[in-house]
Design brief:
Elements lengths: L1 H14 L4 E6 L3 E7 L9 E6 L5 E5 L20 E4 L8 H18 L11 E6 L1 H8 L1
Parallel strand pairs: 1-6
Antiparallel strand pairs: 1-2, 2-3, 3-4, 4-5
């Protein structure tokens, strides 16, 4: 899982070096996403590694807004869509690159104040040890 997550991280950084990486340590997953600002609401793609499920998601924060013409993304909620990454060989790089381009453009359209745009930072947004302790009990 670690190797897959780090490979995906390199994949995103190689395409969007100007984006900011937002890292979240949540009670059920470690997630990192990329945004033109420091705000989660502007995140265009993310990687989540499940603590108990041991799944790796390559997701789109606003995935429901993406075209996804081949209907490859999973998720039926109002917002988030993802690709369940089982191995590198089956990861549809070209298809997901196109969705990333669309997601990046949508994310930028959400930024109302250009002063919010930052470049190439890694930001730890939350560490939820209190939630994790409650969950483990």
């Amino acid at each position: 899982m670690q190797e897959t997550a780090l490979w995906l991280r390199d994949f995103v950084w190689s395409l969007y070096p100007q984006a900011n990486e937002l890292i979240y340590d949540n009670y059920n997953a470690v997630a990192f996403g990329w945004s033109p600002t420091d705000r989660v609401g502007h995140t265009f793609c993310s990687i989540a590694v499940g603590r108990t499920s041991h799944n790796v998601h390559f997701g789109f924060y606003w995935g429901s807004k993406l075209a996804d013409p081949k209907m490859k993304l999973l998720g039926g909620g109002n917002q988030y869509r993802y690709w369940l990454v089982k191995n590198r060989k089956d990861f549809p790089k070209a298809y997901l690159k196109k969705l990333m381009e669309e997601a990046w453009a949508y994310s930028l359209s959400l930024v109302k104040d250009p002063k919010q745009i930052m470049q190439s930072k890694t930001i730890v947004k939350s560490v939820s040890s209190a939630k994790r302790k409650k969950k483990e009990k």
